[in-house]
Amino acid sequence: MFEERRVPPHIAPRSARRGITAFDVVAIALAIVVLVAQPNAAWIERYYSTGVYPAIDRGVRALTSPLPFCLGDLLFAIAVVWLVRFWIVTIRRARGARTRAAGIALARTLAVACAIYVWFDISWAYNYARIPLAQKVVVHDDRTDENSVATFADRTVDRLSQLADAAHRERSDGDAFANRLVPTFDATIARLGSHDVFAPPRVKPTLFQPMMQLSASNGFTDPWTHEINLDATASPYERPAIYAHEWAHIAGFADESEANFIAVIACTTSRDPLLAYSGWILVWFNLPSDVHVSHRMGRTAYDDITAIRAHYLQNVNTHVEQVQRIAYDRYLKSNHVKAGYASYRLFIRWMTGADFDATGLPHVRG
Q1: Same domain for 297 and 198
Q2: 164 and 290 within one domain
């Protein structure tokens, strides 16, 4: 028989014997500083969003873009495996010192979470605190009432009907539309205060594709690795606007409504019928559910809208969607987005109340 080797209770594993490390202290301290010492919006806009952030994005994407897989997925999987193994090994080896070992393990877990949070803010999330577009875009409140939105809804129907057939003829495989979107995307973000160039991001497959379908999430931007994922099953007529939305996040516009606004302007000001059509589809699905539409939609556009809605109903799990919305609502509110999940549709107010120049770009203050 083999005799089980017993470790005396007073001998703790190496992780427990070492106790709290310098990494733990520094990571937690930095997270507290980042959380408490929030610069004001003007500082963020000047020195971060239009200052160091473009260089951060270029540096991060120089590492992540060439990879044929999504580095964010891999890092997530490694983090989960490490966390589970770390806790199991630490507690099992502690034996008589399990309470102390659990405390140390908790401190290490907190420290790792703090390090991840610090990189989250520095790498991208400070953009949540930049000067909001609501303070840049000139909006006339008297043009944001129910009648104005109804008029805008009729215009949306007209544009969808006019563009549908041409969009079907221009349909391209994959994400070839990305380069065609560059001129209007660059012009849009420049008008809104970001004059740096943000290269079109590479779309990568993701392990979270099933979750995206179940929760009705069309796209996702990884703020740590600056990679974007799109729902692989999305209609080719939705895809350009979804892509532009995620690209806007990469360009430093973290707020969901701002990303929607940029996506719509960048798409609808393009002469490419597929891009323009996609932008108006994004508008359609963000109109108020009770809006009164008096114009009749063309058959091709109607069939596309119906197919998109049917795809949603076929794939979504309402329970998963609800949980995801609640979680994301809390996340957004914790990052200075007061409207939370409802912020996605706020850009409709800008579309109806703002003034636009001959190129379709909004007038801004200053």
Answers
A1: yes
A2: yes
pTM of the model: 0.87
3-state secondary structure (DSSP) of residue 49: helix
Q: Rounded to an integer, what is the distance from CA 54 to the centroid of its chain? A: 17
CB 217 within 8 A of CB 327: no
Specify if 366 maps to a domain: no
Q: Is the model's pLDDT at 150 over the cut of 70?
A: yes
Cα separation, 159 vs 281, in Å, equals 10
The predicted model gives 247-274 an average pLDDT of 96
Helices (H), the chain: 14-18, 22-36, 41-43, 53-64, 71-94, 98-123, 146-170, 177-191, 209-214, 239-250, 256-268, 273-284, 299-315, 318-334, 347-353
Distance CA 238, CA 153 (A): 18
Residue 184 lies in a domain: yes
- Residue 164 lies in domain: 133-353
Q: Are residues 137 and 243 both part of a single domain?
A: yes
360, two tokens: 């379709």
Question: What's the longest Cα–Cα distance across the chain?
Answer: 88
Rounded to whole angstroms, the Cα distance separating 269 from 82 reads 47
62 and 181 inside one domain: no
Taking 80 as the threshold, does the pLDDT of residue 84 lie above it? yes
Reading the block at residue 352, the tokens are 């109806």
Query: For the segment 27-80, what is each residue's pLDDT rounded down to a tens digit?
Result: 999 999 998 888 999 999 999 999 999 999 999 999 999 999 999 999 999 999
Reading phi first (left if > 0) and then psi (alpha if -120 to 50, else beta), residue 252 is in left
Are residue 259 and residue 115 in the same domain, yes or no? no
